[in-house]
Structures are given as C-alpha cells and as structure tokens.
Amino acid sequence: MAIFSNLGISNLPIGLLAVFLIGTAAVYRLVLIIYRIFFHPLAKFPGPKLYAATYFPYLYRNAIRGTFAKDLLRLHMKYGPIVRVTPDRLSLEGTVGYPQAFARRPDQEEYAKIPETYGFAKPIGIMVAERDDHRRQRRLLSHAFSEAALAEQETYIKYYVDLLMTRLKERAEAGAAPVDMVQWYNFTTFDIIGELAFADPFDSLQNSKYHPWVKMIYSTVKSSRQMLFFVHYRYLKPFLMTRAMQQNAKNRAASVQLSATKAEKRLAMEDDARRDIMSYVLRYNSNDEKGMTHEELTTNARSLIVAGSETTASAMSAITFHLLRNPHVYQALVDEIRTSFAAEDEINMKSVAGLPYLNACIEEVLRIYPPATTVPARSCPGAMLDGKYVPKGTIIAISNWATCHNPRNFWDPETFAPERWLPAAHPRYDARYASDDHTGFRPFSYGPRDCIGKNLANAEMRLILARLLWNFDIELIEGQDDWVEKQRVFDVYEKGPLMVRLRRRCVA
Ligand code: HEM
C-alpha cells in the first residue's frame, strides 16, 4: 500500500481505486498496442495489425486451433516473404530464411534455438544445445548417420520392411479388406528407429498394434505446442485448458520417463556387435570434455525417436495419398519400379537410390506436404534480413508450407507433379516447371543444424515405397479427398486414417 500513499491515493474509496487501477491498466495496454503497431522496431515489417498488436491471434490459431501453419500461406501471399505474426515474431519464407539466416555464419553470432519451443527447460541435447555444445554432439552423432553407417544399419531396416510386407500380405489375403496406411507406416518407422536408437523396437509390426508409447507421441508433441499458449495467457488456463489437454500433458511426462528408461537400458548393454546409432556414438564417446554426458545421451535418444519416426511416417502417408489420387503418376512410378528389377530381392537401399522417378516423387511429397510445416524457431542475434535490420531477440521461423505452396515460388503449386524435379533429359521432363524457384525448398532445413537423419529418412522412404509397389496394386478407398485439407497441425500433422485396398500383385 506504500505505493498508493506515495501516489496520494491511499484514501480513495475502494470502488474508485478499482476504477483507477483498471483505467491505468487499460491506458497502459492501449499505449503498448499503439507502440507495437507504429513505433516498435518491427513496425516496418508488413503483416496484419492485430497480429502486431497482440500475441493472441498467433497463439490461438497455432496452439489451440492448429490452423496457423496453413494460414501462413495466405499471409505470405498477401504480405511477401517476411510477415510479422506477433509483436516480436517474424515468419519467413525459405527463399529468404535459408540463405540469409540458416546458412553457416562463421565468425558471426548464430540464430540460436529456443529450448521452450520444444518444451525443454534447459538447453540439453542436440535439438536445443548452444553453438559449441551442439557442434560437439553433432560431431559424435554424425558417425552414426554417415553413408557407411547407413549401409551397416540396412540389415535392421530391411528386417522391418520385410515384416511390413508380410503383415500387409496377410491383410491382402484375408479378403482385401481396407487397411489404414497411416497406422502401418507409423508401426514401421517407430520400430526401425526404436531398434536403431534404443536397440529395442516397439514391436508394433510384430503385434500389429500400437505400442502405448507410440500412441502417446502425437499427444506429447501437441501438448508442448498447447502449453506455449498458456505461457503467455496463464490466466486463461482454468477456462481453456480442457481435460484432453491435461491428459496430453500427463502423457508427455510419462513418455519422457519411458524413453529415459529405454535409453538407460541401451546404455547398460555391452553388446558391441550391434551396429545401431548408439553403438557409433558410444564408440567415439570419450570421458573427457569432448564426449557426451549421460544426460545428453538419454535426451538425444528420445529426440531421435521423436524426430525420426513421425516425420518419415507422415511423408510416407502423404505420398501414398497423392500417388493414389493421381493415377498417371502412380502408373509411371509402378512402371519404373517393376521394370527396374527382375526380382524383389534386387530391391535394396543402393539399387533404389538411382531411380529418378521414385526420387522425384519423394521430393514432390516433401514439397507439397513438408513433414516440418514450420522449421523450429530461432532467436535473431541482430542482423539484416532482406535489406532490413531485425533487432536482437526477434523470433524468426521459416514456413516450409507457405514457401512450397506459394505460386511465386512454384508453378501450379497445388498439383502433385514429380515432373518438376526431373532432369531435362528424362522422358517425362516437363518444361512448364523450369521456372520453379528451389532456393526455399529445404524440407530437411539447412545449415549447421539441418536434419542429421535425412539420408536415413530418404533411404527408408525409397525402400518402403519400392517394395510396396513391387508387391501390391493399391487403390484409395473413396471419400477421402479431403484427407490433407482437414488436417490440423500442432508441429506435426493431425492425420486421420488413410484407408486403402491392397491386392497382391501376380508376378509371373
Ligand atoms: C522425412 C523425414 C524427415 C524430415 C522432413 C526431417 C526434417 C527435419 C527438420 C526440418 C529439422 C529441423 C532442423 C532445424 O531446426 O533447422 C530436423 C532436425 C533433426 N532431425 Fe530430422 N527429419 C526427418 C527424419 C529424421 C530422421 C529419420 C532422423 C533420425 C533418426 C532425424 C533426426 C533429426 C535430428 C537429430 C535433428 C536435429 C539436428 C540438429 O539440431 O543438429 N530426422 N529434421
């Protein structure tokens, strides 16, 4: 109350005092809004005024409604490659963001990761570590993702792709009832990465059902996103925090615990005959300051599972959807796969890497349906972007979705056209796509923190797709045209089932 007596208002009646306080708060908000819209250093960047004035529209659409990742296309089409989306946040198209902010910046301060956006309290682990710590961990992990390591891991990957084929053949033979491909791709990618990171698959393919941890993972990612809303609007928590959100938050805690237990189990193993990701890290990990700490090892094991499964399964689900909706593309890919090999056992990671149309289909799905719709945000160190100064501490994030769907960057962007990625010498090359601007197409991000698992992801996608189309004729069950359109995004796509009918192909 000393403050009130200093202001000389301690003797005001309580009602008047309340009016005074509310009035002061309202004037403060008004002045703040005017400042943010007209005088803030980011005022020179275009965007809706409401977004510049308050965090609410961005946070509500992003964290609660899950529509913001796709809304960004409209904003970028209207305002250009840089749009102000909150008082202190800019959304960038990849055409500006990748070359100007994400590229290597030797001798300059980096655009730093923001641990809270991942739900991390501390900068531990490769995803959020600061520059030097990141470099050390990345160097150690990169042994496990080299071409040579990938070749050694093929045995594990092949085992699960074989198992997927077996399970799908069982389904096809049991009367061609429709199957949900989202679920089967999830089973496969989680089993593979579980085997590679923990030496412990989730046995989803074995049991033909979700492991509870895998089932939880989507809700744990969603929970991290939703909680960001309540960081800004704590007082709305009792009104907007639904039972489902509370359950998501509990799932997140359980999932962190389970992955720590699995990682501990792997670290306790003495099996140096294994050639999984951990075996490489441990082989090069020393006990001096260049190695990874125990906490980093366990945190990274979980990060690999989250980063390496959902993303690849999303891309696989979407490629299936787009192929089946575009029969001429489906047929061209089937023809390439079925004429390139004499027998199924010729299909391996090396032999599929050279199939141009298959590679073009994968590039195209990563464009039209980038598994990371928005690349994790960074904090600007104070730098020029597109000729304008962006102050230190401004949050920037690149929208892959807006970049890849903007007709300024890609001709006929809503059409699934693998032809745009073919070399001019290919018989299916189509010159209409020659004007596409590929600068902003970086589905695996760019620079020193780009995706370490991109070779693994591409290898998995090529192998699964080639084996699938070798073995089956596939048909989309009707009534699913809006499968992509209706998906919301909470960092990852909220995918519904993708129902297809599989028929075993008759091989003479
Ligand atoms: C289609 C599949 C995938 C896509 C589209 C994808 C995309 C991405 C993106 C956009 C990033 C963020 C980079 C940044 O913040 O600048 C990332 C990081 C990362 N990804 Fe992937 N990813 C995929 C598969 C995988 C796989 C299979 C693994 C490994 C098992 C993996 C492991 C990682 C790791 C460890 C990071 C952090 C790298 C670092 O900070 O140095 N990803 N990925």
Automatic annotation (TrEMBL):
The family database entries (PROSITE patterns) matched by this protein are listed as:
CYTOCHROME_P450
Give the family this protein belongs to, as stated in its UniProt record.
Answer: Belongs to the cytochrome P450 family.
What top-level branch of life does the organism fall under?
Answer: Eukaryota
Which SUPFAM superfamilies does this entry report, sorted A to Z?
Cytochrome P450
Q: Which Pfam families match?
A: p450
In its keyword annotation, does this UniProt entry include Iron? Answer: yes
Q: Which UniProt keywords apply?
A: Heme, Iron, Membrane, Metal-binding, Monooxygenase, Oxidoreductase, Transmembrane, Transmembrane helix
Q: What is this protein called?
A: Cytochrome P450
InterPro entries xrefs: Cyt_P450, Cyt_P450_CS, Cyt_P450_E_grp-I, Cyt_P450_sf, Cytochrome_P450_monoxygenase
List membrane-spanning regions: 12-35
Which cofactors are required for activity?
A: heme
Organism encoding this protein: Apiospora hydei
User: Among its keywords, does the record have Transmembrane?
Assistant: yes
Q: Which CDD domains match?
A: CYP60B-like (cd11058)
